[in-house]
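Example record used in the benchmark description.
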Amino acid sequence: MTAGAPFFTAVPAAPAAEPLDLIFVEGLQGQTVIGIDHGELHDPQPLVIDVVAGLPRARACDTDRIVDTIHYGHVRERILRLMREHKLQLLESFAEAIASILLDEFGAAWVRVKVVKPRKFDDVAAVGVQIERHAGTAAARITRAAPVLHLIGSGMVPGDRSPQG
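Model output (structure tokens):
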């Protein structure tokens, strides 16, 4: 995928039991301390985050109520909070934490998360990681457990899903 290419146009790779409604946040920009190099461990650096969360035919299609779908404004706020509070070093772990939030806190059936460090190197537009996760499988729950436990151990408490506008 090239820089600037639409992130949300691809269809989930694994077959779903039924079509998914895709809710997305594209190009969320923020700064956080993340990395493994000495220079990355102290000063915040920019990240650009894209998330796509799939729901099997969201009830909101019928009810026209925000509480019957994933509120992208709440997703945005939750990711920004994670950027402020996490203690992770790898983009992979950070992306996994975002995926866990979407699956566990927001009830997504499938997620794709892309985390990018723009202009990390002078000759590269961006470096980063992109992951996909599905809810409901034992392997997915085990895979997501370590970063979530790490976040809880560092004092983070899962966010509120109240239906505020």
